[in-house]
Write a structure and sequence with these properties.
single chain; 138 residues; mainly alpha; 0% strand
């Protein structure tokens, strides 16, 4: 492999920083979400159902966001839209816990679905930049 092209590295730096921030945020979120659901009044079965629904929501949202990125918004706009949506949902999840316990489970499921684009779209944008850089160096 050849050395990274300087302009390519500079253009991917904001994406790398954003990915690191999202990774750190998801790591903290994953550790505390179940405790937050319990504080909202969900019992162990409800927490298990919310975690399962979150995993299913994640799996369903991967092809959905891929389709949106490929046919409607494009990769960068889809990534930005997902970031805004997950931020709004996370703020709603942080509202006072006097909402019904089921609302916390639903918000958790939606948040997990909105985090899926980071995995596929960051990779797609990075590979697209890499491919463009290879074509330009020929």
């Amino acid at each position: 492999m050849s050395a990274a092209h300087p302009s390519r590295s500079a253009s991917l730096a904001p994406l790398a920083v954003a990915s690191l921030m999202v990774g750190a945020g998801l790591g903290c979120w994953s550790a505390l979400a179940m405790v937050m659901l319990q504080a909202r009044g969900l019992d162990d079965v409800g927490i298990g159902l919310a975690a399962s629904a979150g995993a299913i929501g994640f799996v369903i949202s991967v092809p959905t966001w891929s389709h949106v990125a490929d046919t409607m918004l494009g990769r960068p706009r889809s990534l930005a839209a997902a970031a805004v949506l997950v931020a709004v949902l996370a703020l709603a999840f942080g509202l006072p816990p006097d909402l019904p316990p089921v609302a916390g489970g639903i918000l958790y499921t939606l948040i997990m679905g909105m985090t899926a684009p980071w995995l596929l779209l960051v990779d797609a944008i990075t590979r697209s930049e890499e491919h463009t850089s290879e074509l330009q160096s020929r």
